[in-house]
Amino acid sequence: VSRVGNTHGGLKPFMKSAQEPQQQQRWGVTNPLSLAGPTENDLKLNEQFLAELQQEPVYEGKEEAQHRERVLVELTEVVNRWLMDASKKKGFSEEMALESGG
Question: What is the enclosing helix (H) or strand (E) of 4?
Fold first, then answer.
């Protein structure tokens, strides 16, 4: 069974068995270049690439990641409060304002 990513970062089945037609999620406006999974060489090159990246200062540390997450939570709260206020000023009910993301 090959797998494709979903919007939540997890994996979902791409094809359940050889007899079933492929259930393809379309991303963008063009068809994919290939539906084939990675080759053994692709996987080896990916591991080498990740090992190289880990030697460079491109990954954030635990503290940096926690700070980024706190900032994103705070930004989300600010935007939600703004949406709630803007929705109420437009005459939306509280339920409608909440549905808008506020």
Answer: strand 3-5
Between the CA atoms of 31, 32, 36 and 41, what dihedral angle is there, to the nearest 10 degrees?
160
The pair of structure tokens assigned to 48 is 């080498």
| Other beta carbons within 10 Å of 4 | 17
- pLDDT category of residue 96 using cuts at 50, 70 and 90: confident
Per residue in 26-47, pLDDT (tens digit) is 778 888 888 899 999 999 999 9
- First CA to last CA distance, the chain: 41
Q: What is the DSSP string of 6-60?
A: -TTS-EEES-SSSSSPP-PPP-SSS--S------HHHHHHHHHHHHHHHHTTTS-
For residue range 62-82, list pLDDT tens digits in order: 999 999 999 999 999 999 999
Residue pair 4/14 in contact (Cβ under 8 Å)? The answer is yes
